[in-house]
Amino acid sequence: MTEFIILIIKLVLIIAVAVGMVPFLIFFERKFAGFFQSRMGPTYAGPWGSLQSFGDMAKLMSKEDLVPAAADGPVFRIAPYILFVPAFVSMTLIPFGPMDVDIFGYNVDLVVSSFDAGVIMFLALGSLAVYGPVLGGWASNNNWALLGALRSGAQMVSYEISMGLAVVGVIVMANTLNFVDIVDAQAGGFWNWFFIPQLVGFVIFFVASIAELNRDPFNLAEAEQELVAGYMTEYSGMRWGIFMFGEYVNMVVMSAVISTIFLGGWRAPFEFLDVIPGFIWLVSKMLFFIFLYMWIRWTLPRYRYNQLMDIGWKIFLPLAIANLAVTALIISVV
Amino acid sequence: MAGHESHPTAPPKPRATPEEMRERKRLSRQRVSDDSEFITVSMGPQHPSTHGVYQAVVDLDGEIVVNTRPNIGNLHRGVEKLAEVKSYHRFLPLTDRLDYISSFAMNHAYAEAVEKLMDIEVPRRARYIRTIGDELCRLSNHLLWLGVHVMDFGAQTFFLICFRDREYVMDLWEMLCGARLTHSYARIGGVAADLPDGWVEKCRAAMEFMPRRLAEYQRLVEKNRIFLKRTVGIGIFTREDCVAWRVTGPSLRATGMERDLRKTEPYAAYDEVDFDVAVEYDADVYSRYLVRMKEMYESCRIILQCLDQLPEGDYINQDAPSQTFPRKKQVMRDSAAMVQDFMQTFRGPKVPKGEVYKAIEVPKGEMGVYIVSDGSSIPQRLHLVTPTFYHCQATPALFEGEMISDVVGIFGSVDIVLGDSDR
Amino acid sequence: MDSTVEQISDALKSVFGKLEEKFGARLLGSSVFRGELTFLVAPEDLVEVATYCKAPEGLGFDRLEFLTGNHYPERIEQPFEVAVQLTSMATNDRLRLKVPLKEGQKMPTLSSLWPAANWCERETWEMYGIEFEGHPNLIRLLTDADFEGHPLRKDFPVRGLVGGRIRTDLKGKI
Questions:
Q1: Which pLDDT belongs to residue B371?
Q2: What ipTM was assigned to the predicted interfaces of this complex?
Q3: Tell me, what's the pLDDT at B22?
Q4: Which of C119, C122, C152 would you mutate first to test chain B, the one with the most B CBs within 10 A?
């Protein structure tokens, strides 16, 4: 029974972290954008405009829930959640600290599920998330939305392959598919983290994650300047809000996964810094990647659709395979 | 003059022959399969990057544009009809509303045409002020264009960076005539007012500062691989196409044609300053960007020269009292000037019978005004030959065979504003 | 007219001579004002004259600057007029052809010679009601699809409400 209660508490905490970060991420993104563009960003709501996201949320929730007459109603309504739910499930795989910690006399693992096929689970959930944009765009019965949906489907699927292959290098080195064990394999200082031996895989994974997240320079599925708003063209009010929310939750999850796989997860860069809880290390690494995503978004122009596919299939895929081959060779020889 | 730095010369590109350009254009047109159905989408009037209320109904084969049916007129205000009930003086503010991004250039085009019709001289100082105004318009227009153009490719920060520096030009305008967007600064026979105190120094400081910012933009844009990938070799529009569709301005000069009305038929003070016509040879989106970038450097150079050489004298013609306004300061002191002001305002100028066409080089291309006069103080017919009208008309030829992602970039690269085309 | 010909540039003088020589009496007249040369051409001769003007071996006026109409209600016989301005890209000379038209008289299209004439002719048609024979797509350009009347005719009022309804029966026709 206590185990069950602990599990519920952990789940609530995980969701609270993922959801609770989002309004502040949106706020930070707008402030960063303002900073990059030599303007102020939001200033009115709350101190330095920090309550802007909550105001936006209230506005979106009070809006009418519009479903176009020609849309496929049930699919149209459910599509935003399809983007949203897999992200939460992925979050349960991420360890936030060591196993068997003594908290108030209870032995607690600081991970929701130490799942042996964790990496595969994460990739599978990532594939599921594609259905959100694709179904949303298809159900809208709008040509712009359809184009956006097709782009997002093709883009996510083709980048998933490079992404999966980039992780395999780490799996070969760590000899496990479990995120908890992957973090354990990186113990003992930052020189043991996988981003050093797996630099190529790290770069591929990071760039592919931008494509997975549909952010600039790979946000072809939305592409305001080309496709109006891509698959979100017909969405308004809170359903649009959930799409946006889902994208930010995905960003949180993706940065957590990258930190876990390549940057030692909750582990400190030096062992003497272990006094600081692992949770804080993980969140600060996540924030670093989130900042990178934002920086890239507000700096670079967007690739064209066929150029994106070229990069995915002609550069990243061969590179990922070569990386895997070299890794496997070195592991087997050493 | 020697002190003012020119555009840092890029390594010269090979001069492409028309055949080479046509071949490149043919290569850039991707194959369209014969047996596929088309998706029809409506770009505009509310599309985010049609830069106004332009609409293009586009048939797509996958991502490739097969047919384009452009549609303008959502901003039609009947300016030419209004011209037929207004005196020549009273029509001038309406020209602001044509190309509202560079409204002084529009005033200038109209004033030049009316002056040609009336055959009156413009004082030398007024011609210099007009030249400065034209170039300020070119600068602010191209800065806005550059920001929007790069934003069309998804780089949103660049837009606001360009806006930041456009403010320097806007501040100059505000100080000069009180308005930031619709200047109405030109008058028939000169300009509305003399340069205010301290304006010359402020303008000189801004123009000496601007090339540094332009160099910064060049670093930001020309070193960006994504931008290069999106622009080089895209949207080729050959010289023959440009002539056939009457595409003018930077798009024409990007095909290697050295045609700039500032040089070929100099007006205002352009024959007294030293500047180069910006020419590129590849006829693609990137060439059009380069032409505009060079033009911005040249604009700074022209303005600095004009400020150096600025002559003393009247800012509006005082020798033709039946056709021009008096100096504003005199109106309240001198009864003759007051009568002249009254007559010009309420009766309008005396105009000979005849018809003229006068074109000048505005930032977007060649802007012409065709006036038919029957000898009264209102035009019998006034036709505004605006560059954007023809640029919009050429869009089917520009878009055909390109990808939908490139369409926005190509459309941006010809530089349009819908107030100009719809009139 | 012969005294005013002296005002124009030498290049335009040779254009004047060539056109007079080639078409002679078929040209309805010519005028010069502020150094601009204008020829009056009958509508049935227009395509031939324009082709000669455009051809490189002819006069080489390869660009259409604009094409627009005009309405003179006081001219009872031929109240309409179409002005075509041509530019030579090589020499930057300009030439204007004007075509007087009767009420309801059709005019040949120039859009096969210059693609740029397409929208100009559409505009002229919608503003003056001058029809262009052989035009591929003579529909309204600047005004609404259901607009009635030709706004730039002198008898069209400047003030007042015309149209202003939203038509739903035009779907697919625009």
A1: 92
A2: 0.85
A3: 64
A4: C119
